[in-house]
């Protein structure tokens, strides 16, 4: 392939706009963008919890990649594992990926009530949910059950957001603050067992990576489109060409919550 540093702005933008966005496989970014990983190793920790679960639910599973990784490494698989996903292309991808693991994928919007009976699951997990419905999470957890998740934190990748949209109001920047999520979880009747947050360095080495990232992670620049944001894309491309990688920072928090009361024997 032609060295990306010699390619035109137009070619790079066209490439970034053409890459499929289904699922949460980020392997395309190899050599084009990097993101430091949280120290807690969420997927590996999830695998351990799945090995002790009787009935597990993965919310907003995307293409099922994280759940599939964790199930493949769990010491045993839960007798019942279900995943939800609201975007049809992702739901189809997750179904194909997770079927060999015995996982049922249920189409369910992140804003809709969960289509499960009260107290169905002793473990609910989620990696980067668009929004945590704390009332619904508490409802479908059995007494003594656990919610274990990695959430996107406040102001994540705000350097990109503000490049395209300008300074953001404080309420938007703090919308995913872990202290707010703690309060919302407790208001739903859950006890916080663990809550840790980290700020992680990201680097974008060409404008194609920026375009693909913003198409894939749609909440960073709501309403992003190449034509609508072409002048700001060109400005950023010229900056990368002149100064090197564009640096931003993601924010993540690990959250473990418990529904008070005794759990199943052996849990």
TrEMBL record:
Top-level taxon of the source organism: Bacteria
GO terms, biological process: methylation
Lineage summary: Bacteria, Bacillati, Actinomycetota, Actinomycetes, Kitasatosporales
Annotated protein name in UniProt: SAM-dependent methyltransferase
Annotated Methyltransferase type domain residues: 58-148
Biased composition (Basic and acidic residues): 169-185
Signal peptide range in chain numbering: none
GO MF annotation terms: methyltransferase activity
The keyword Methyltransferase is assigned to this record: yes
InterPro entries the UniProt entry points to: 23S_rRNA_MeTrnsfrase_RlmA, Methyltransf_11, SAM-dependent_MTases_sf
Keyword vocabulary terms for this entry: Methyltransferase, Transferase
A Pfam family that the UniProt record links to this protein: Methyltransf_11
Region annotated Disordered, chain positions: 165-185
